[in-house]
Amino acid sequence: MIRLSMLRRYTIKATFLCLAVIVFAQLLTRCTVLTHKGEKPFKEDQINGILPGKTTKQEILLWFGPPLAIARKGKVMKIPRPEGGKELPDEVRSETFLELFSSKHELTGYHRVYYYHCAETETEPVYFVYADRAEKKLFIDKLWILINRQTGVVEDYIFRRQR
To answer: In the chain, how many domains are there?
Structure first.
């Protein structure tokens, strides 16, 4: 009789200990943000700091680093896949990016579109006693910047955030 009650106490203690460990692990790993190598999340002050007609190409490179792709008339861009992907890069006609600005600007051979892309995955693990799963959210920021290579000045930009 005494052994049975001791066994029950140990079983109850072990169960509570396992539940405490699971809850503690969930609190520690509540949110994980992953970005593709070489890409940084875009900050609002950086985006708002782009002033068409004033911001220079050098400032853009300083703030955002090298672009993922540069579009110019008549060229095909190779846009790399996210880190870890073994597939070949996507090939995109530069005119696809140049068309974004064609309604507001008369584009010349001096115009370039710098393309930046940031993708983040936010994961919230959910733990159960017998199994676990994770809820994932995908956040994508895309930035196209029209630069006149002759003047070295930004003429326009488009920023899109998908949440």
So the answer is: 2
3 and 67 together in one domain: no
- Within this chain, do residues 41 and 96 fall inside the same structural domain, yes or no? yes
The parent domain of residue 24 ranges over 1-30
Kindly list the distances between the CA atom of residue 123 and the CA atoms of 4, 33, 127, 137, in Å, as whole numbers in the listed order.
Answer: 43, 7, 13, 7
What is the distance between the alpha carbons of residues 69 and 72, in angstroms, rounded to a whole number?
A: 10
* DSSP 8-state symbol, 84: T
Do 54 and 1 lie in a common domain?
no
Place of tokens 């692990």: 25
Separation of alpha carbons 99 and 88, rounded Å:
25
Per-residue tens of pLDDT for the chain, all 163 residues:
556 566 566 666 766 665 555 555 554 444 433 333 335 568 888 899 999 999 999 999 999 999 989 999 988 888 876 655 566 678 888 898 999 999 999 999 999 999 998 887 766 655 555 555 666 777 888 999 999 999 999 999 999 988 7
Same domain for 67 and 147? yes
Question: Euclidean distance between the first and final Cα of the chain, in Å?
Answer: 60
Residue 119's nearest CA partner among 1, 16, 5, 33 is 33
